[in-house]
Amino acid sequence: MAEQLKAIKGMNDILPPDSARWEWLEDTVRRLMRRYGYHNVRTPIVEPTALFVRGLGEVTDIVEKEMYSFEDSLNGDRLTLRPEGTAGVVRAMNEHNFLYEGGRRLYYIGPMFRHERPQKGRYRQFHQVGAEVLGFPGPDVDAEVILMTAALWRDLGLTVGQDVRLQLNSLGQPDERLAHRQALIAHFDAHAASLDEDARRRMHSNPLRILDTKNPAMQAVVEAAPRLMDFLGEASLAHLHAVRAALDAVGVPYELNPRLVRGMDYYNLTVFEWVTDKLGAQGTVCGGGRYDGLIEQLGGKPAPAVGWGLGMERLLLLLQEVGVAPAAPAPDAYAVVLAGAPMPAVMHALEALRAQGVSVQQHPQGKDGAASVKAQFKKADASGARHALVFGPDELAAGQVTVKPLRDGGEQRQQPLSDIAQWAATLAGPSAS
């Protein structure tokens, strides 16, 4: 017997019935995006390695430790499985001159890849939903993308302020960050003995990332570090205040977190995270912010941008933790075929029903014909169908089918096969289109 092959560790199969939860989440996201006027964008899973090195920053955990990078053996190109979605979207906008006619509101859904130790809520192949707004500089757009995430939580059944909490900060502009950076380096240099190896290595290259450390031994030094908020100028503070005013007007609660920096180098001004205390160490559910310099950094004409991304696995874990679950998918009807019933006539009727928008599951015929009526009704009940359609030879000869309710206790009835369009809607559930 050949050796059984298995999936790569940290890259998981998603099988029924669990895949139905994923479809429900994706459908909810797409409905939300339509309400806000966003359009879908799909970029390649494999991109040039330089895209992420230049876009995310060389001294970031993703670039240093986590990217799946390789050399194309056919032409020597350095390639990387995308670790996040924003850089690829910006590359596509630049390459196709997509901002020529003005700003764009875009979203994506798809797999990302990072080489890290697999654990609950953190996988090597994971899936993200992201929204990117390119070409609009105002704080109203920052507020819009945050309010969109709040609307998504409501659509999914999560309670803002209880299941998820919003944290907000401003990273200011490059000159303000430079002044803060110099103050940070001086602070951390004075406390170098208290820093771990990773922090000492980053002290001069990317000191802002030290503020995001999870090392408990460094928390006192981090808490005493200079605050970026104290270095922000009038324009940056006005931008932050305008975002806060919009959130206040809509009634979305938030907390200012001056240590919130996010994991990529491309952010400026507004940054935010939605966090939860219900998933242990995996507390960040969604994060994003403004990245006005990235489009130019990746070779495009200067243009502002803002966006966010969320991990679908982690969000589904949170929904499960708080007891939110979509209804199990079920067909509207299940076809029970009695012995002697001509299958061509049965299948003709089922296709006519499906053409009317009715979902019908057909009981498969074995080598010896139809299974017993008892076995078929057992399967019909297990499928969750609201009705059983009983196709017997006598009914078919009379041009009819017996409709038997399985859930609401109604009476069974005979329906004419010659006029399916007139009664098909009585079978369809509330979600039928």
Description:
With 433 residues, the protein is of the alpha+beta class. The protein has two domains: 18-172 and 232-321, Bira Bifunctional Protein, Domain 2 (BirA Bifunctional Protein, domain 2), CATH 3.30.930; 333-426, Rossmann fold (3-Layer(aba) Sandwich), CATH 3.40.50. The protein is built from 15 helices and 16 strands. The strands form three sheets. An eight-stranded mixed beta sheet has the order 1-5-6-11-10-9-7-8. A five-stranded mixed beta sheet has the order 13-12-14-15-16, sandwiched between helices. Helix 12 (343-355) links the parallel strand 12 (333-337) and strand 13 (360-362). The longest helix is centred in the first third of the chain and has 19 residues, at 18-36. It starts with 17 loop residues before the first helix and ends in a 10-residue tail after the last helix.
Keywords:
single chain; 433 residues; alpha+beta; BirA Bifunctional Protein, domain 2; Rossmann fold; 8-stranded mixed beta sheet; 5-stranded mixed beta sheet; 16 strands; 35% helix
Produce a short descriptive summary.
With 433 residues, this protein is an alpha+beta fold. The protein is built from 15 helices and 16 strands.
